[in-house]
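Q: Predict the assembly, please.
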Amino acid sequence: MLARRTRVLPGFGLSLGFTLAYLSLIVLIPLSAVFIKTAGMTFDEFWTAVASPRVVASYKLSFGTSLLAAAINAVFGLILAWGLVRYTFPGKKLVDALIDLPFALPTAVAGISLTALYAKNGWLGQFLEPLGIKIAFGPPGILVALIFIGLPFIVRTVQPILEDLDAEFEEAAASLGANRWQTFRRVVFPTLLPALMTGFALAFARAVGEYGSVIFIAGNIPMVSEITPLMIITKLEQYDYAGATAIASVMLIASFVLLLAINGLQAWTSKRQGRTS
Amino acid sequence: MNATAARLAPHSGSASRFEANIATRDAPIVKYLVLGIGLSFFVLFLLMPLIAVFLEAFRKGWATYFAALVEPDAVSAIQLTLLAAAIAVPLNLVFGIAAAWSIAKFDFPGKQFLITLIDLPFSVSPVVAGLVYVLIFGTQGWIGPWLSENDIKVIFAVPGIVLATVFVTFPFIARELIPLMQAQGRDEEEAAITLGASGRQAFWRVTLPNIKWALLYGVILCNARAMGEFGAVSVVSGHIRGETNTMPLHVEILYNEYQFAAAFAVASLLAMLALVTLAIKTYIEWRADRDVPEEIGA
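A: Predicted assembly structure:
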């Protein structure tokens, strides 16, 4: 029974060999350079690079704004996904197609466009500045850029789950006397939660590393609005390769942890899906 | 993991089935509130930035717009962007097919780990992606001294830009194909081989027709990212005008020189590329729905 199936299909050695070679050459060996270079530093050198006040301020800013942006997107992305799946309205196809705009629009274009909108004389900035709300050239600008790039992650992970959700569950809840809000809170939302958290993690991971859309609108003021990727660029421009690499290793470890978390969440999502549908 | 399969799965689009069912129907006030909030958010954060690109581009008139696009530095930036994409997309296409073939058609230990590794470039910051190539090919890098002895430039030159572009677009095609080919299994190819087809015939006649929409989908997303990449390319480019500037980098230089109309003119080309990408993507989703109504979603 446990006899191996004979391989009928050809090309296993070739395709896997090419895959591993290409993966190693383009991704694994280059990424290992970061850790090998970091391992060559003394602990003091490393610590000075990754724990200087300006760099620590950039971690707080990058992680803080990324969390907040992902949280805002989780709320509004869910509302948007609900609207796209549950209701008919004119222009729905267009809205649905444009949700993916941040995936397709180069980040630099998004960056200068958002800056133009939110600067003091911009379309939105001219109304907001007199109210004392300053968006561009500070942390709120970073938040706006990260909301832009993160939105499709939430909508596109929640939307398919919402579409596959069987009406039976809500029918059962309704026949047992639950009102719509109770049904949503107790029946629908728990089903969506794994997907929502996956989307949140994806948006967060993307936001932490984001560079192009942020640097134009951030203002890049030391200790106030410098994101971590910008700190790497700054070190590189000063020819401080070791310092840049040390910060990069911190970011890479954060990426690995997030990637593992995302994989776990996705496994949870598909398990949940398997059970309910 | 099955995000792709879900995306290419039938988009029923039949919200009416929810609105017709008394158990899933929301009160009109809820509907208008949800749509009001959701669509306001959409307009504010997605639609307005898109429209702003074009309005800013044409603010100083058509003459300025076209002048910005035919200026030699802009033309060379466009050429370099096209070149980088023309190398990166085919390379990652071959890789995507090879990776999906080995993962979907064969069993081997560590498969799930391999899939995770393939996704890795998505979670690495573009700036770090650029940096790794500086560490290898830069003047102080691993093989930097050897390269400069032999007068080969990688960093601050075109090869570096191509490498960085290949890195950031690495998973795009593979991750569209892997879940789809896994879901499709290997029966059809095995039948073809058993009936006497060669491996090549089985691939061209059986596999390729089955994956064509996902393949195309991956290619256009890969291409959009390849042409639009900023952070990674910015680290390895050195920003030499007319030589190592891609379109997004050219946009940055113009913007930092306060040539806003010109910056937005070049940006508008990239925005049009994004719109064309989304249009093709929507078409592919529609075609994929029509071709295989149930198979993929299962």
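The radius of gyration of chain A is 23 Å. The mean pLDDT of chain A is 91.
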